[in-house]
């Protein structure tokens, strides 16, 4: 759920963590959304990928440049 933007990914991850605090993995509809979701997870004290596996979609070059690197297809 989101609008395929960085901000949309962050907002969706906040909602998802509120609904599913035991979340241990997520496939996100776009790399841009995933890049917005990662900082939300880190601020919530969740380690990526140890606590939560994150996979994006688009195979963008930005995925490799982020920290932690984003798994993408």
Give me the CATH architecture, please: 3-Layer(aba) Sandwich
Q: What is the third-level CATH name, the topology? A: Rossmann fold
Terminal-residue CA separation: 19 Å
**What structural class do helix, strand and pairing data support?**
alpha/beta
Describe the sheet with the most strands.
3 strands, parallel
Give the rounded overall mean pLDDT: 94
CATH class equals Alpha Beta
* Number of DSSP E strands: 3
How would you characterize the overall build of this protein?
With 73 residues, the protein is an alpha/beta fold. It contains three helices and three strands; from the N terminus they run αβαβαβ. It has one domain: Rossmann fold, CATH 3.40.50.2300. Helix content is 44%, strand content 12%. The protein has a three-stranded parallel β-sheet with strand order 1-2-3, with helices on one face. It is globular. The model has no long low-confidence stretch (mean pLDDT 94).
Short description:
This protein is an alpha/beta fold.
Annotate the secondary structure layout.
Blueprint: H1 6-19, E1 25-27, H2 31-43, E2 53-56, H3 61-65, E3 71-72
Parallel strand pairs: 1-2, 2-3
Q: What features would you highlight for this structure?
A:
globular, Rossmann fold, 73 residues, alpha/beta, 3 helices
């Amino acid at each position: 759920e989101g609008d395929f933007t960085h901000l949309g990914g962050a907002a969706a991850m906040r909602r998802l963590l509120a609904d599913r605090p035991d979340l241990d993995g997520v496939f996100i509809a776009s790399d841009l959304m995933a890049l917005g979701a990662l900082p939300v997870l880190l601020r919530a004290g969740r380690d990526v990928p140890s606590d939560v596996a994150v996979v994006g979609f688009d195979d963008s070059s930005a995925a490799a440049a982020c920290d932690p690197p984003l798994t993408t297809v």
